[in-house]
Amino acid sequence: MKTYIIGHQKPDTDAVVATLAFKHLFDSMDCWGHPNSVACITHHLNPETKYIFKKFNQTPLQLIKASDIKPKDNIVLVDHNETSQMLNGIDQNQITDIFDHHKLNLNLNHPIFVTAKAWGSTCTIAFNLFEIYKVKIPKKLASLMLCAILSDTVGFKSSTTTKVDKDAATKLAKIAGIKDIDGLTFEIFKAKSNLNDLTDQEIITNDYKIYDFSNKKVFISQLETVEQKSLLKNKKSNLLTALAQIKKDQKLDLAFLVITDVLKVNSKILVLSDKESLVLEKAFNEKAIDNILDIGPKLSRKKDIAPAIEKTLRLHTSDVGKQ
Question: What is the CATH number of the domain that holds 101?
Fold first, then answer.
C-alpha cells in the first residue's frame, strides 16, 4: 500500500514543492501513518517550477494518472480541497489527509485529517509542522520551500502574506544558505515570465482554476509576469481568441484571464464578452476599456479576485443570466 501526495491540477510551485515537503514529514515520523509515501504531480511542470528544480538540482517527480492509484492506496491532498481541483478520476473515499491554505469546500463521505491555515503558502504549513515536531529540513528542500513561499506570496506583496510566511522564509533561507532573498525573488519572477515556448492556449492554461460559483462553471487563469505591458500590447487579440476557444471546449459559463505585473503590483483582466464585463464591473466597480479591466493592486486570485467574482454571481445571478 502506498500514499500518493498530490497537488492540484496544473500545479504551481507551491503545490509541487509541498508534495516533497510532506513526503519528508511522513518519512521522518511514523505517527502520520504514511510509511510508503510518493510525492507526485498531475501535470508537467510550468516554466517557473522547471527553473527552480533545475537551479537546485531537484529530480523530476512522478507524473501520475488516477489509474495508477490502486484501491488500497491512500491519497493526501496538498494545496487544494475542492473537487474541481482534484486529479480527475480519483476515488475520494481514498483521501485520508488534506493540507491546504484555501477556503474549505468539502463534502466527503468519511472523516479525514485536515490541516488548514490562512497563510500565504502550503509550504508555510509544512514548515510550521517541521518546527512543531522538530524535523530537520535538508538544504535542498529548504531552498525549494523558500521559492514556493516567495512564489505564492508574490515576493510578500500579495494580500495573502502573513508574518508567519515571512518568518518561515527567513528561517528557510538560513537553512538553505541563501542570503539574497530579493535577488531570488526576481529570478523567480523572470522564470515565471518566460513564455517563449508556450502557445497562446498554454499561456492561458499555465495556472488556472475552475470554480463552481452559483451553479456556474467559472474559469480564472492568472499570469504573473514582469512584462504585462508588452503582453497586452502584442498578444491581447491572440489571447482573447484562445480564451474564447477554451471557454467553448470546456463548456464554461465565464472565463477570465488575469495578467498580474508582479513588480508594479497591478492586475488587469482580459474581458472576453459582455457577460464577463458585467460580472467584472459589478465585482470591482471599474469599467473595461478595449477588453481590459484594470483592478489595481490586487494580486491574489484566492483572496482578491475569486471571492469578488463569487460574491457578484451570488448577488446578481439573474442579471448575469440575461446576458
Answer: 3.90.1640.10
Q: What is the CATH number of the domain that holds 255?
A: 3.10.310.20
The last residue of one of the domains, among 191, 209, 243, is: 191
Question: Do 178 and 233 belong together in one domain?
Answer: no
For 115-129, how does the pLDDT look when each residue is reduced to its tens digit (9 = 90+)?
Answer: 999 999 999 999 999
- How far, CA to CA in Å, does 170 sit from each of 166, 182, 205, 216, 262? 6, 12, 32, 41, 21
CB 217 within 8 A of CB 252: yes
Q: Could you say which of 140, 160, 191 is where a domain stops? A: 191
For the segment 184-197, what is each residue's pLDDT rounded down to a tens digit? 999 999 998 888 88
Report how many domains make up the chain. 2
* Same-domain status, 111 and 208: no
How many residues can be counted in the chain?
A: 323
State the Cα–Cα distance between residues 254 and 237, nearest whole angstrom: 18
Helix/strand number for the chain, H first, E second: 11, 11
Q: Note whether 180 and 60 are same-domain residues.
A: yes
Question: In the numeric block, which cell numbers belong to residue 184?
Answer: 531570488
Do 185 and 215 fall within a single domain?
no
Domain with 154 in it: 3-191
Crossing angle, helix 163-176 and helix 181-192, to 10 degrees? 100
The band of 153, judged by pLDDT with boundaries at 50, 70 and 90, is very high
Mean pLDDT of 81-93: 94
Q: Which SS3 state, helix, strand or coil, does residue 233 take?
A: helix
How many other CB atoms are found less than 10 A from the CB of residue 141?
Answer: 23
Q: Phi/psi at 98 (nearest 5 deg)? A: -135, 135
Give ∠ CA 229-231-232 in degrees, rounded to 5: 65
Q: Are 191 and 52 in contact (CB under 8 A)?
A: yes
For residues 28 and 20, what is the distance between their CA atoms, to the nearest angstrom?
12
